[in-house]
Amino acid sequence: MHLDLSPPLLVFGGPYSNLRALAALRERADALGISASQTICTGDVVAYCAEPEETTQAIRTWGCHVIAGNCEEQLAASADDCACGFDEGTECAALAKGWYPFANARMSSHSRRWMAALPQAITFTLGGLRFRVVHGGTRIINRFLFGSQREALREELENSGTDVVIGGHCGVPFIAEVGSRMWFNPGVIGMPANDGTPDVWYGLIRITGGQVEFSTHRLSYDHTSAAAAMHRFGHADGYAQTLLTGLWPSLDVLPSPERAATGQRIAPQTVRVAIPASRAAAE
Ligand SMILES: [Fe+2]
Fold it and tell me: How far is the CA of 4 from the centre of ligand 1 (A)?
């Protein structure tokens, strides 16, 4: 799906059934004067937290752009598991046997039909740069890609046919410049980023002073109530504790550098790219 978008843009991943975090993000967007038509979610509206159907309805009511995550693909098909890409026998895979059936049992047929109709990718042009929004990798929806994986990012970016890829799925925010291209993962709003704080993350893309500016931002929200809701629904596994501590229940999916950064407060990033004169003139 190709869109015509006007800056600034707000981009975010993984609401993960966390209704309170989604509400806080919408308030932040309103405060920034950013409309739903300038906002993009990279998928996984439903996952670990307490209110899958309510969160789906809330994001539909908001009306921002959403692409399909692996969770939407699986729930749309009423599949048996999340297809997150966790290795069998790991803690993440064991936890998914708890939260995925919980979510799957609560999704309305209306919401499943909406999920089935979501695009797998969005493309747009902004500031002379070509963008592609994907969930995980450019070819594999559940590929985990972290900022330390430079060669994997290089290969993905070369395959993308664009200047910038906006990706989600992995749960950790990062902006990686690789050659003349960029991978921008704005993080997720449904779970903390394993940095020992309960904050969640989103990203902004602005045009300022002849440059395209990419930035990542913390979002504080009522995480105590989000964890309490998981207890109230009888769905309090390791992720309920993560909402409070900011530490993931398992580090299975993390490469060594991100694993070593567990509990270290993540600093927001800002990267500016000059608008290519030739393309800006043509736009
Ligand atoms: Fe995902």
Answer: 25
CA of 233 to the centre of ligand 1 (A): 23
Whole-number Å distance, alpha carbon 185 to ligand 1 midpoint, is: 13
In this predicted structure, what is the pLDDT of residue 97? Answer: 85
| Domain boundaries, position 197 | 9-282
State how many domains the chain has: 1
pLDDT digits (tens, 9 = 90+) for 111-158: 999 999 999 999 999 999 999 999 999 999 999 999 999 999 999 999
Which residues, at least 6 apart from 219, have a Cβ–Cβ distance to it below 8 Å? Answer: 21, 24, 25, 28, 189, 199, 200, 201, 202
Say how many Å lie between the CA of residue 277 and the centre of ligand 1.
36
pTM: 0.95
Residue 46 Cα to ligand 1 midpoint, Å, equals 9
CATH number at residue 216: 3.60.21.10
* Residue recorded with tokens 């969005």: 122
Residue at 2 is within a domain: no
